[in-house]
Specification:
Layout (H helix, E strand, L loop, with lengths): L1 H4 L3 H15 L7 H7 L2 H12 L3 H4 L1 H23 L6 E5 L5 H7 L4 E6 L14 E2 L12 E7 L9 H11 E12 L5 H17 L5 H6 L7 H11 L2 E7 L7 E7 L1
């Protein structure tokens, strides 16, 4: 898969720069050699071995928390620019760090976060995150003004329709559902999305997690297919925000009940 991606020069440069950014070191000198002489699993193992030798790794928890906070701050600014959050009750599905809720709670809104587990590798604030079964949201009908789900839906393999139906249930009439995800088109871009999931696992894990790579699975879907499913449930008026240069085909979808 990695060799296939790297036959496209622009995607190869994009991948190379992303790995350099993740590892906080320059890797361009040997990148072609590594690509051409390794299997995909050996590729990840090679760069994970480089990662554990970096200064970033020596302060793993501290640096992961800093990175995650910066990521949530960017997401917070994006959501705040999309919709009015003042006095809104917001649900974040798949929350990994309660810091995200605090950003909203300190800005005139009220957010709660839910997740299926608390297994992140760094020690973020997880004290207020509610555990649920991945389908049945533990709140009453028509509870939330806004529901957000960041880069999670493609990881819901088997009961994603049931989850979307329950999201509709707990969202108020006229409320807003915001999805951040990948548009799974065809060709190398899909492979690139898969590789990026494996790269993030490479730097999220203290130990090299062979089981993750051997059992890796996501649900590939196009954004048009998702909108059709949302409309069947009852959602209305989809609006997309898409970056101009976007090899990972990321988008935000805003859709109302």
């Amino acid at each position: 898969m990695i060799k296939h991606i790297c036959t496209d020069h622009n995607l190869k440069l994009f991948l190379q720069k992303k790995i350099s950014s993740m590892l906080h070191i320059e890797i361009s000198q040997k990148f072609d050699v590594v690509v051409n002489s390794t299997t995909d699993l050996e590729f990840y193992a090679y760069y994970h071995n480089m990662f554990v030798k970096t200064p970033f790794y020596k302060n793993f928890d501290e640096n992961k928390m800093k990175y995650q906070k910066e990521l949530y701050e960017r997401k917070f600014e994006t959501i705040k620019n999309m919709v009015n959050i003042n006095n809104k009750y917001i649900l974040d599905i798949g929350q990994e760090d309660g810091y995200y809720s605090k950003l909203f709670n300190n800005s005139g809104a009220k957010m709660v976060g839910i997740n299926v587990n608390l297994t992140m590798n760094y020690k973020g604030d997880k004290s207020d995150i509610i555990i649920y079964d991945g389908v049945n949201i533990p709140f009453s009908n028509d509870t939330f003004d806004i529901i957000v789900i960041h880069m999670v839906l493609h990881h819901v393999i088997h009961k994603w329709k049931e989850l979307l139906i329950d999201i509709y249930r707990v969202l108020k009439k006229g409320g807003v559902f915001i999805i951040e995800d990948h548009d799974f088109k065809n060709g190398r871009e899909n492979d690139l999305i898969d590789v990026f999931h494996c790269l993030y696992e490479m730097v999220e894990s203290v130990e090299f997690n062979v089981e993750y790579y051997n059992t890796y699975e996501i649900r590939r879907f196009r954004k048009e297919e998702l909108v059709n499913e949302l409309r069947k449930i009852g959602f209305l008026n989809p609006k997309f925000t898409i970056n101009k240069y976007n090899p990972l085909n990321k988008y935000y979808l805003v859709i109302r009940k």
